[in-house]
Amino acid sequence: MQNPNKETISEWFKGLQDSICEGLETLDGKSQFVQDKWERSEGGGGRTRTFKEGALIEKGGVNFSAVFGPTPSKILEALKLEKADFFATGVSIVLHPKNPWVPIIHMNVRYFEMDNGIWWFGGGIDLTPHIIIPEKAVLFHENLKKTCDKHNSTYYEEFKRWADDYFYLSHRKETRGIGGIFFDRLAEKDQVTKSDRWEFVKNVGSSFVPIYSEAVENLREKEWSDEDKKWQELRRGRYVEFNLVHDKGTKFGLDTDGRTESILVSMPPIAQWQYNFAPENQQHLQTLELLKKGIDWVNYTS
Amino acid sequence: MQNPNKETISEWFKGLQDSICEGLETLDGKSQFVQDKWERSEGGGGRTRTFKEGALIEKGGVNFSAVFGPTPSKILEALKLEKADFFATGVSIVLHPKNPWVPIIHMNVRYFEMDNGIWWFGGGIDLTPHIIIPEKAVLFHENLKKTCDKHNSTYYEEFKRWADDYFYLSHRKETRGIGGIFFDRLAEKDQVTKSDRWEFVKNVGSSFVPIYSEAVENLREKEWSDEDKKWQELRRGRYVEFNLVHDKGTKFGLDTDGRTESILVSMPPIAQWQYNFAPENQQHLQTLELLKKGIDWVNYTS
């Protein structure tokens, strides 16, 4: 297969945004995305699509962007380069559900290249249940493994570990959720071509709606208590902590004068903090016990 | 006057915590502080005092700590030192009021020394109204100026500018609130002795309850609308953004394995985020216009 160029990749991502938004509107059944097109003075722009007050999704965003120009100095320093122009494109998603039983989901697929020939893909999908239901966690990881296994038998294990390490709140000594897959700087390697990487990234993107649909199944109608709702808002507080304190993408975007409202589309509608909160509910307590690195979800038995 | 040593400073700070908590309980009239004593494995510890569901204060904390041990590598690197033991003590406060008309307040006084003879004081007081009332902002800054002027005619101007620069959300291009005073690394300089610096820091600490009492006067009884409440929660979202993205003290504490629950006592009880929110209310709009650096509040006329 031919190696894709940046126009091909960016156009495909744009189409992915369209199909995901369509899929999510159907899944939600009540609300619609609203689009903001924006331009970046240094080059490029994006389409920020936000969603609110749905039947399933309380607040969410599905962003597409394709930006270019002189490479930000932070990247140049990290790569020990003096100067280069860059092109970056991607789709990123965060969905905060109304029902505390439904998990928060995050997905991102992205491509980066410089005019010196350096390029890579990055991305991943991870799940943050407010209340972890082990069978659903197993299902989610099985689905990711299936997506990965189509491409490379080492991907799932490698990218699952990467997600565990990345989505980690060191100041809380807990993971953000049950992880998923995370990968970055995927370039050519041994027998793996750019076209192979691209097929994988496309499959991750295309798997989003089916995987999320399964993840919410049987949960979106589940009744919740006031205690569950409060717990959800406290867990959303942790989500805020991760995104603002640890997430490299958020930090980089805010540091390099990215479009703040598009970046912070990931924030929940409402979050709570309470000093030294300790849950009493059994399922909430169990959730805390499962917010650990290294759980082999695919082979998990409780 | 004799130069104070670390024991004297730390004991005084402990007493300050007592008197401030007492003053705030009287001012609130409904709830009380609850204390958690904690120890740090490397040396020292603290008293975290938290407050919730008061008549005036919805959530707040008044922390005292005195910690010591090997200096964290981040400080050593910044100071280009190889090794040193440190001692750090201070009181820090954040109060989130129930009523949207009442401002959020933050105060901190601290002392740091190393066994190589290096020492400094730091601290400040700043105000974050959800809705800025210019006359109250003027009063607040006049009070800070009075406190500063007793010690040095240059302090207010210098430390007011420092607060403008420090309490700034670069990713929003807005200040956290109306600023106040901020100072760091105050050591001996020209004719100014350690004892002079100490007298100043003590006065900043002692001025907290009277200044806050004036800041809330005539506001705590003010009626608010649902629109004001929502606006308060959105503004609290910005407070969260500042503390987690920009605040050096928070970042340092979380990075060096500080006591997370004590550090994040600064978080509001509830915060909201809404994509691209634009207020319609005149007073909310005016507030946004006043979240700028360099407003000469003491001489402000609207």
Poorly predicted parts of chain A = none
Cross-sheet strand order for the largest sheet of chain A: 1-2-3-4-5-6-9
- Average of per-residue pLDDT values of chain A: 96
Biggest beta sheet attributes of chain A: 7 strands, antiparallel
Considering the protein shown, what is the CATH homologous superfamily of chain A?
Coproporphyrinogen III oxidase, aerobic
Question: Which second-level CATH architecture of chain A applies?
Answer: 3-Layer(aba) Sandwich
For this entry, what is the oligomeric state of its chains? homodimer
How many helices of chain A? Answer: 9
Structural class given helices, strands, pairing of chain A? alpha+beta
Q: Cα-atom Rg of chain A, whole angstroms? A: 19 Å
- What amount of the residues of chain A lies in strands? 25-35%
DSSP, total strands of chain A: 10
The biggest chain-chain interface is: A-B, 33 and 33 residues
Our count of domains of chain A comes out at 1
Highest-level CATH class of chain A: Alpha Beta
Describe the global form of chain A: globular
- Helix/strand order of chain A, N-terminal first: HEEEHEEEHHEEEHHHHEH
Q: Which fold name corresponds to the CATH topology of chain A?
A: oxygen-dependent coproporphyrinogen oxidase
